[in-house]
Amino acid sequence: QVQLVESGGGLVQAGGSLRLSCAASGRTFRTLAMGWFRQAPGKEREFVAGISRSGGSTSYVDSVKGRFTISRDNAKNTVYLQMNSLKPEDAAVYYCAADVFSLRVGVPTFYNEYDFWGQGTQVTVSS
Known about the structure:
The chain is 0% helix and 48% strand. The protein is mainly beta and 127 residues long. Strands 2, 4, 5, 6, 9, 10 and 11 form a seven-stranded mixed β-sheet that branches. It has a four-stranded antiparallel β-sheet with strand order 1-3-8-7, with no helix packed on it. Strand 4 (33-39) and strand 5 (46-51) form a beta hairpin. 34% of the residues are buried.
């Protein structure tokens, strides 16, 4: 089992920044590929960003490229999502997810590739 706890969500004006954090426990963190997803009301959960076990590879949905940065600190068992230049369309509940499949190559980007999920943190962007 892996427990994931997100923090850092909140209300921000358009153009502003937020940094989300996700603390993991229950399994050796460096064995987990990590990802961030988001879900807005009435929409499906969407992949936002992912990072490989070593942190050497990352992947982003096109709509956040150049604005969001995913990173991890394996010493702190934490993955981060730095969100800059936020837009109203970025508003959603953001979920942290962990992939435990050790043989997977690259960064998982699909919902069903992730095994454990956090409870989510709300991000609201005012225009």
